[in-house]
Amino acid sequence: MHDEFLCHVTGYGACGGRRIGVPLGTYRAPTLALALWWLRDRASWIADRLDPQPEAEHFPPGALAPVADTVLDVPTVLRVWCADMAQQDFVANELAAGRLIRIAASDDTTEYELLAESIDALRMQRTTSMLYTPVA
Fold first, then answer.
1. Any bridge partners for residue 113, and if so which?
2. N or C: which terminus of the chain carries fewer CB neighbours within 10 A?
3. Are 39 and 116 in contact (CB under 8 A)?
4. 82-5-27 Cα angle (round to 5)
5. Tens of pLDDT along the chain (136 residues)?
């Protein structure tokens, strides 16, 4: 069983013709349950910032406009992922098996990526690669 998990959230966009990643958060989860909670929390956090409620008092009337139907609705994609118990079980099983998981959603300007991986699996990979590294 993998006991600790490293979780990351990153936003990617283009700047000067190059793909640039902006870290939006990192969390070292001491348990699988907390890793899953943090990923869902960050997905909801992104969705709420991309798709605020129009009636919120800090927005003047008419300040928000809906996007075109042809643009992928990232907030809805993230909210659906958070509510999908089959997906949550899949992610939990992958992490418990020591595999890296990646959840990503993109619109026409930005990609949002959530990553998680077992710290134990990372340690084992490093140790294994050190055991087989030729010495000059």
1. 10, 104
2. C
3. yes
4. 70
5. 568 999 999 999 999 999 999 999 999 999 999 999 999 999 999 999 988 766 667 777 777 777 788 888 899 999 999 999 999 999 999 999 999 999 999 998 999 999 999 998 766 665 555 555 555 5
- By C-alpha distance, which of 30, 24, 31 is closest to 47? 24
* Structure-token match 């700047």, residue found: 15
Q: Supply the pTM of this predicted model.
A: 0.81
Q: 11: how many CB neighbours lie within 10 A of its CB?
A: 14
CA distance 67 to 104: 19
48 DSSP 8-state letter: H
Question: Greatest CA separation found in the chain?
Answer: 69
